[in-house]
Amino acid sequence: MFDASFLPKCMSVIFLEWRLLQQCLLKLRVRQGFSCYMHHIHTQTSSSGGGKHQCNPTVTVDSMHYLSILNSSTNLNTVKQLHALTLVTRYHRNVFLETKFVSKYAMFGCLESARLIFHKSYKPDVFLYNAMLIGLSRSGKPREIISLYYRMRKSNVQPDNFTFPAVLKACGEIRSLQDGKEIHYHVVKSGFELNLFVGAALIDMYVKCQSVEDARQVFENMPTRDVVLWTSLIVGYVQNGCANEGLQLFHQMRLGGVNPDSLTMASAISACAQLGGLKEGKRLHAFVIRNGFELDLSVGNSLVAMYAKCGSVDVAHQLFDMMPDRNEISWNAMIAGYAQNGHAKEALRIFSQMLEAHNIKPDLVTMVSVLPACSHLGAFQQGTWIHDYVIRSGFELNVSVATALIDMYAKCGSVGHARQVFDKMPKRDVVSWSAMISGYGMHGHGKDALSLFSRMQQTGMKPNDVTFISVLSACSHAGMLDEGWRYFSSMSQDYCIKPRGEHYSCMVDLLGRAGFLDEALDFINKMPLEPHVGVWGALLSACRIYRNIELGEVAARHLIEIDPGHSAYYVLLSNIYSAEGRWHDVAKVRSMMRDRGLKKTPGCSFIEVNAKVHAFLVGDRSHPQSEKIYSMLEVLSGQMAEAGYVPSTNFVLHDVEEEAKEHMLGTHSEKLAIIFGLISTNSGTPVRITKNLRVCGDCHNATRFISKIAKREIIVRDLNRFHHFKDGFCSCNDYW
Ligand code: ZN
Ligand code: ZN
User: Fold this and answer.
1) Could you give the CA distance from residue 189 to residue 494 in angstroms, rounded to a whole number?
2) 516 and 614 belong to one structural domain
3) What's the pTM?
4) How wide is the angle at C-alpha 425 spanned by C-alphas 421 and 426, nearest 5°?
5) Residue 331 is assigned to a structural domain of this protein
6) Which of 553, 545, 523 is nearest to 535 (CA)?
7) Which residues surround ligand 1, an ion (CB under 5 A)?
């Protein structure tokens, strides 16, 4: 029935959509009825209710008409018009229509309208509840879903196999194991526990609540298993760091004759990435190609990440280039792959390509992946640019990005900027505190590191083993032996943290630095665990500084025994011999290296000028400004000699003539980089250099002189720590 008397209440709704409403009415074929109504309104308003209504207002539109039009409606306006019309025709009390309207409004994101209909419903049934729950789920309102579910139970509406998945998903999203378990109990009581759809949702919920054991239990209890169910559990294992179990399950599934889908494949490949299992990963890649999964975006992304994590960055890049579509995840995987495999320059190159790519916007994961590349290269300007980008893009500075920024600023030589980021963090975790303490440590600011550590303790944040590495190495870089001992014993006594190899090597370094070489050896011999390379390496460095050949040999032989493929130890041993002129022994070490096919890692220094990183090798003449650099070197050498600098030739590995040695020292990579920095930056600005190896004694000495002559602050980061040269002095007090 078309009841005209109801209309004035709805006037405002209707006239807002006047034109569209007319079109809609055409569709409804109720034009005649509506014009009668309009005529009625018109006569009423023009003659103050005097005129008599002539036409028959009865129109045959039933709820099925509305439903069929609603089903096919693809825009919000149509839904609104139909809604207005049901108010007019009083069909709005129909629970089928209510359900449909709730679904449609939720689909278009009009949650308020959906809620309004739902709450005004006279007697909501399970379908209406489901429509509301699914609508809320679409809009990401997990808490509202759970409370609506409890309201549903209270009003004695029985949930069904569509209710449970929506509610379980919400429990997973807020990781509420307690609610999840209670709903699991309801599932069993309502007899839905064998439903595949509900089973997969239960597994997914337990996985998200990090309770993989419970997920497994649900899985085991299912009488039949489809690919969705298998995949839920495989994803669960892989996401919770149990890659082995995930892969085993994958093979079981295939043996059981269930074919994987693209999500199963992506998870199995991610499991290989976690395990570093390149061989298995390649087998899965072959399977992907045979079964036509290679065009799937998530499978492609997982393959790129797997090859990159397993060290095959070139293959990863080839796949990346071949991908028909790429999203942010693909780019992030490629950047992280390069950064983690030590190809920092490549990582930055891919990042700049990403910035130019169409329809791609770097996210916080990108920032966390690319910042370590800046740290590695000491690329201060690019790192600062990324920090600005994070602010400009309005990203909320989360803990991992802020911590990556702290690490970047500290490693790029600006501990002050690192501290600014640290102070601005609204929330800090133990990793951020440790990063800041470590930042102070590597710059030799021992006191700042320790005072920050005590502030951390005051705030109630519990330090972990990594924090103690930062604290102990801060003590060691600053030569604070007593404090070092105190913290070393405190970590096991007060915090029940068992010292690891890294903690022991900090202590050996502290003892060695203070010249207690025999005590250091004694300490190593009394260690409750097998000393690793860091421990012997620390002793070897001390022996090099204090010129103790005997102990140095002991340390170096241990190192070569533990890691015979690492050329640096042979070089250190050879350096110790050559410093004492024991050329016969030098030759023996060198032939040992040759026999084992080892080459000395070439020294390489980086400097960033105008946001571009320049790399220099020993005696490098490939740089476009080479001529200028070498003529400047000549001028400087003269000035340095006048100021009293004498080249110390015992840092050259080879047994060569003294004059030739001096020439080789003259062209060490760090000197070339420093001079390039001097000629290409404004006077007064600090020069920042990064070196891939430890800075040699002669370069260290020369840099002291250069800092004074050129009146520049020179900041050198070597493999071990930072050296701030100023006015002829270095912050490390010549011990490193
Ligand atoms: Zn050098
Ligand atoms: Zn130094």
Assistant:
1) 49
2) no
3) 0.73
4) 165
5) no
6) 523
7) 668, 696, 699
pLDDT tens for 670-689 read 999 999 999 999 988 999 99
Mutual orientation of helices 313-322 and 328-340 as an angle, nearest 10°?
Answer: 160
> Distance, CA 696 to ligand 1 centroid (Å)?
4
CA of 695 to the centre of ligand 1 (A): 6
**Measuring CA to CA, which residue among 246, 237, 200 is closest to residue 219?**
200
Residue entry with tokens 């539109």: 61
Residue 722 CA to ligand 2 center (angstroms) comes to 7
Please give the distance, rounded to the nearest whole angstrom, from the Cα atom of residue 667 to the centre of ligand 1. Answer: 8
Tell me the ligand closest to 697's alpha carbon: 1
Range of the domain at 415: 374-595
Token pair listed for 632: 């400047």
d(CA 587, CA 661): 17
Residue 436 belongs to some domain of the structure: yes
Given 567, 595, 623, the domain boundary residue is 595
Nearest ligand to the CA of 728 is: 2
What number is the average pLDDT over the span 612-619?
A: 87
- Assess contact for 319 and 337: CB atoms under 8 A: no
Q: What is the pLDDT of residues 201-223, one digit of tens each?
A: 999 999 999 999 999 999 999 99
Q: State the pairing for strand pair 612-617/604-609.
A: antiparallel
Whether residue 573 contacts residue 591, with contact meaning beta carbons closer than 8 Å, is answered with: no
Ligand nearest to the CA of 652: 1
Distance 215 CA to ligand 2 centre (A): 55
Interatomic CA distance for residues 246 and 264, integer angstroms: 10
Indicate the number of domains in the chain: 5
Is 84 part of any domain?
yes
Q: HSE, CB side, 13 Å, CA atoms: give it for residue 79.
A: 22
| CA 415 – ligand 1 centroid, Å | 25
Domain termination residue (choose one: 174, 199, 223) = 223
Q: What is the distance in A from the centroid of ligand 1 to the CA of 718? A: 11
- Separation of CA 685 and ligand 2 centre (Å): 19
Distance from residue 699's CA to the centre of ligand 1 (Å): 4
- Return d(Cα 555, Cα 544) in angstroms, integer: 11
3-state secondary structure 720-731: CCEEEEECCEEC
Helix H or strand E encompassing 394:
none
Q: Which two tokens stand for residue 422?
A: 């640290």
In a domain, 361, yes or no: no
Q: Are residues 624 and 671 in the same domain?
A: yes
pLDDT, position 301: 95
Statement to judge: residues 135 and 112 lie in one domain: no
**DSSP string across 301-328:** HHHHHHHHHTT-HHHHHHHHHH-SS--H
Contact 309, 340 (CB under 8 A): yes
Contact between 265 and 303 (Cβ < 8 Å) = no
Average pLDDT over residues 161-174: 93
C-beta neighbour count of 690 within 10 angstroms: 29
Considering the domain architecture, whether residues 292 and 313 belong to the same structural domain is answered as yes
Measured in Å, residue 587 CA sits from the centre of ligand 2 at: 30
Do 410 and 458 fall into the same domain? yes
Q: Are strands 604-609 and 687-691 parallel, antiparallel or unpaired?
A: antiparallel
Same domain for 476 and 447, yes or no, is yes
Q: Write out pLDDT tens, residues 282-309.
A: 999 999 999 989 889 999 999 999 999 9
Verify that 480 and 541 share a domain, yes or no.
yes
Strands in 482-535 per DSSP E: none
Asked whether 205 and 239 are in contact (CB, 8 A), the reply is: no
Report which bound ligand comes closest to the CA of 695: 1
Helix (H) or strand (E) holding 463: none
**CATH code, domain carrying 271:** 1.25.40
Which ligand has the minimum distance to the alpha carbon of residue 730?
A: 2
582 with 626, same domain?
no
Helices vs strands, H then E, count in the chain: 39, 6
